[in-house]
Amino acid sequence: MRDFEQALAMFANLAPRAGLPAEGWVPALLARRHDAQAHRIVVALTHPDLPEVILKAQFMPEDGIDFVQSVSVQAELADRLPGVARVLARDDAAQVVLMQRLPGRTLFDLCANTPVETHAEPLRAAGRWLAQLHGLDGPEDRVFQPKFALAQIDRLEAAVSQGQSSVARRPQFMDCLAAMRDNPPVGAECLTKAGRGHGDLNPRNLMIDGDTVGALDFRPTRIVPVAHDLARLFTHYGAFLPELSDCGGPLPGVDTTPFFEGYDLIGPDDHSLAYLMRMRLLFDWAAIPKHQSRRSPAQQIRFRGIRRLIDRAFP
Question: In the CATH scheme, what is the code of domain 106-313?
Answer without folding.
Answer: 3.90.1200.10
